[in-house]
Design a protein that fits this description.
Layout (H helix, E strand, L loop, with lengths): L3 E7 L3 H12 L5 E5 L7 H4 L31 H14 L6 E3 L3 E7 L4 E6 L2 E10 L21 E4 L13 E5 L3 H11 L4 E5 L6 E2 L8 H9 L3 H21 L1 H19 L3 H6 L12 E2 L3 H4 L5 E4 L3 E5 L2 E4 L4 E3 L2 E4 L14 E2 L6 H5 L17 E3 L12 H22 L3 E4 L1 H15 L28 H8 L7 E4 L9
């Protein structure tokens, strides 16, 4: 593959799909999506583990421009969400501009031609604008456990589920107790002979108000004007109430924690087990988990909770940091993703030849979570400091895409060849975000989560409401950018 394009989008998940659709709607026809996999969906394509589902209501976890009245449950499951994402992409004609099976190996800015040169698994390609939409839930994080590589049985990460292994009657160790484990543990607990759960840190769990959507409600959604919007508004208000608790821990988050404590007491009657499952930090420090069967599954006789990290693997035995051991046939890693050290940052080189990762030096930052100084005509979707503990990634992605679309179309109409956010604008934005994070639940005492980067800074979380995110992030302000116009470079009208 070779050629020159106006916009190249890396990734065909929800953010890449949104970017391609909105750019084309705005009149930018020469858009190409590069996707290393063989279909759409991003993280919803990759994660096929048992019980995989969303923890944001389906009415909110969807494109605003493509509502779906046929969700089977309040919270959609993985196959249904994947079908929805894939359907939207194909309905909007993205098949014609998507190149599947092509991996981006590197991208470098060429100042002379004001273009990005991409090295891919199928040759070189150049583009005027680059949209990195690979997302933070892309590359699984594999723990560096001594002896893990020599384990004689099967080992896999939850995001690369091995469906060829029959777990019936097996002894299984699960390492990690985050959002994925909370969903797959209750499923496999019913199959396995013994389940050893290695829990380095306990998590707060709240009940999930989930149920099948009745056919009558689906009919009303399709046929009664504004009903679906009204329902979405109610669900949005409920989620934003949770969001308000993150930002005002006293008394809101403390009150919500009492609900989690009561739920834990009701689900786990054994005091010793309940003590293992009780976190020592304020609810909201880590991602809040929702489940109606996770805690309950841990009380079953074939489950042992090891309230410890894993020190090493010796032969077929998993050895905890507290000395406890478990001899198992398979190990499943529920250890999350490279969220703040996303691999795409190692691939993109800016105007000074350094990679995005080298610029960040362990603390990712971007103006409006989207533009990075020194990386002209490039944008990151679902970038730093845009993570919410309660909202929808669709809302974040669409807000960023609105800003990107305005930036690209303005550059085309004004004859700008280069847009580079000013270091001053970026620094001011980052400083404002970091100041606002102080005093939130994300920054509480004893709070150690994937929100915190290698330098001890929260580079993940958004400190304000979803409404504020949409308002601020959607806006393109040319005054915050260093703009270059070169009459010798041909500019699209």
């Amino acid at each position: 593959m070779s050629g020159n394009h106006e916009v190249v989008v890396i990734g065909a998940g929800i953010s890449g799909i949104a970017a391609a659709i909105k750019l084309r709607e705005a009149g930018v026809e020469d858009v190409v999506i590069l996707e290393k996999a063989d279909t759409y969906g991003g993280t919803w394509r990759a994660n096929t583990y048992p019980g995989c589902a969303c923890d944001v209501p389906s009415n909110l976890y969807s494109f605003s421009f493509a509502p779906n009245s046929d969700w089977s449950r309040v919270y959609g499951n993985q196959p249904e969400i994947l079908d929805y994402i894939d359907g939207v992409a194909r309905d909007r004609g993205l098949e014609d501009i998507t190149r599947f099976g092509i991996e981006v190996l590197g991208a470098a800015w060429d100042a002379e031609t004001a273009t990005w040169l991409l090295e891919t698994s199928d040759g070189e390609i150049t583009t005027r604008f680059l949209v990195a939409a690979a997302g933070p839930w892309n590359e699984p994080k594999i723990p560096d456990v001594p002896g893990l590589a020599d384990f004689p049985g099967e080992v896999w990460h939850s995001a690369r589920w091995n469906h060829d292994v029959d777990l019936d009657g097996k002894r299984v160790a699960v390492i990690g107790t985050g959002a994925s484990a909370v969903q797959f543990v209750p499923q496999i607990q019913q199959q396995v002979d013994a389940l050893h759960l290695f829990q380095r840190t306990a998590h707060w769990v709240l009940p999930k108000v989930d149920h099948p959507v009745p056919d009558a409600e689906k009919w009303v959604k399709r046929n009664v004007p504004f009903f679906e919007k009204a329902l979405g508004a109610v669900e949005y208000a409920a989620m934003e109430t949770v969001g308000l608790a993150f930002h005002r821990p006293k008394p809101l988050m403390h009150g919500l924690q009492k609900v989690a404590q009561a739920y834990l007491r009701a689900a786990v009657r054994d005091q010793e087990l309940r003590a293992k499952l009780t976190p020592d930090y304020l609810l909201g420090c880590k991602r809040i988990l929702f489940s109606n069967n996770y805690l309950q599954s841990l009380t079953k006789p074939n489950v042992e909770v090891h309230a410890t990290g894993v020190e090493r693997v010796e032969g077929a035995s998993v050895v905890g940091s507290d000395g406890s051991t478990a001899e198992v046939d398979a190990i499943i890693l529920g250890t999350g993703f490279h969220i703040l050290d996303m691999p795409v940052a190692d691939l993109i080189r800016g105007a000074d030849g350094r990679t995005l990762a080298e610029h960040w030096a362990g603390s990712p930052e971007a103006y409006q979570g989207t533009s990075v100084a020194g990386f002209p005509n490039a944008f990151v979707v679902l970038g730093p400091s845009l993570g919410t503990g309660h909202g929808s990634a669709f809302a974040v992605a669409e807000s960023q895409v609105a800003m990107i679309t305005e930036a690209v179309t303005t550059a085309r109409s004004q004859g700008w060849t280069q847009l580079d956010v000013s270091p001053q604008a970026q620094a001011a934005y980052v400083e404002e975000v970091q100041a606002a994070l102080a005093g939130t639940a994300y920054s509480g005492a004893s709070c150690h989560s994937y929100f915190i980067d290698a330098n001890g800074r929260n580079s993940f979380s958004w400190p304000w409401s979803t409404g504020e995110l949409v308002r601020r992030i959607s806006r393109f302000d040319p005054a915050d950018f260093e703009i270059t116009m070169d009459e010798t470079v041909e500019v699209s009208a």
